[in-house]
Amino acid sequence: MTTNATDSQTPLLPFDTAPSESWFEQTKTWVQDQVRTLKRQVLTLYIASSDTRTPVACKVLCVVVLAIALSPIDLIPDFIPILGLLDDIVLIPLGMWLAIRMIPADVWADARQSAMEHEAGGGGRLPPNYYAAALIVLFWIAGAVWIVHTIWAWRHGK
After folding, report:
1. How many CB atoms lie within 10 A of CB 3?
2. C-beta separation of 87 from 103 below 8 A
3. Are 132 and 67 in contact, with CB atoms under 8 Å apart?
4. How many CB atoms within 10 Å of residue 43?
5. Number of Cβ atoms within 10 Å of the Cβ of 158
6. pTM for the model
7. pLDDT by residue (tens digit) across 83-135?
8. What is the SS3 assignment for 122?
9. What dihedral do alpha carbons 81, 83, 89, 92 form, nearest 10°?
């Protein structure tokens, strides 16, 4: 069985489970496991970012990644074809991968242990980040203002 480096119990491919399950059940179980692993890693990243042993550059990256991951508003709206899923499929996992690589191994191990204890205690969810949502809304407003200004200047020959 091929497994993830982060969780030895999670199959890497959806078809590495018992052959008695249907394709749909195998895929559903695999996706649920991957989502559970991603949620655990977000919680672990949150805990590691608040550790004093974490380097400042890594903390900044963690804050950006967590802000994008926990914001109730997407950086790129999902209704935009292909690009709408870019932040969910590429940006968040890539940012998490880079942040995890920057965190010292002992800090990551301690944070992962704390996250597992938090999950076992009935927690496991981080609150939505409304500050990040407000920042994303401001980003979109600034973009809209810039587009209107550019069109206005172009039409009036400035």
Report:
1. 13
2. no
3. yes
4. 22
5. 7
6. 0.59
7. 777 767 788 888 889 999 999 999 999 999 988 888 777 665 665 667 767 87
8. coil
9. -140
